[in-house]
Amino acid sequence: MKIATYNVNGIKARYGTVAEWLRADAPDVAVLQEIKSIDDAFPREVAEDAGYDLHLHGQKGFNGVALLSKKPLEDVSRGLPGDADDEQARYIEGTVIGDAGAVRICGLYLPNGNPAPGPKYDYKLAWMARLEARARELLAEEVPFLMTGDFNVIPEDIDVARPEVMRDDALMLPDTRAAWRRLINLGLTEAFRARHPGQPGHYSFWDYQAGAWDRNHGLRIDHFLLSPWVADRMRDCTIQAEMRGRDKPSDHVPVWLDLDI
Questions:
Q1: Would you call 52 a catalytic residue per the annotation?
Q2: Mean of pLDDT values over 2-28
Q3: Which domains are delineated in the chain?
Q4: Which of 39, 77, 70, 29 is nearest to 224 (CA)?
Q5: Which entry of 6, 52, 91, 109 is annotated as an active-site residue?
Q6: Mean pLDDT within 43-66
Q7: Which residue, of 10, 60, 77, 160, has the greatest Cβ tally within 10 A?
């Protein structure tokens, strides 16, 4: 089973790019972020014409996440538990059944947090604490799961082309990285680094400004975190960097997880 996470930076702006990607690359499950559309306005044919079961948690103008699956998704839920007042559409879960068992897919668009310090950064850290609590629940229930999406976290200095420029950014402040490590220390596996340990120069985001793509001034902020059962079945995790050079690209590219399920 091949699962891809992709921050599309607006489904309407990226309609053709996403439609072609789904037809040509055909992930079994696609986890989209930043669709920037309410559910009723989402162009459903982009998924359904390619044979996907589509589940949305949208929001007008910003945020928004989606799950697309070649197999029916079960027990779909929307919103990250822990704050009934949080109205931002950033989290969706659903279960997909593979030949070797079921996997809970947790798709997320973690808050950016800038400017930091400030209320946006406080929200980011609180959101990460809620994500940790959700991971603890799933582990306690012994549910095979993965968490994937745009985490807006640069785990290590090798995950950014110019760490000195980003030192005071919310994506790599000490409290952000500490919250990330707490997730990992629950017993989760960060898929890309498990397959490519210590290798610099691999990024999933390049800003549109200042020739970032041409200079490879990127960040690696789109991740897969795997529970132990899922990690045992990982074949590979790769970044589809060439997508950034296509016509009308998102500033992110897909990251792929290949599972033996």
A1: no
A2: 97
A3: 2-259 (3.60.10.10)
A4: 29
A5: 109
A6: 97
A7: 160
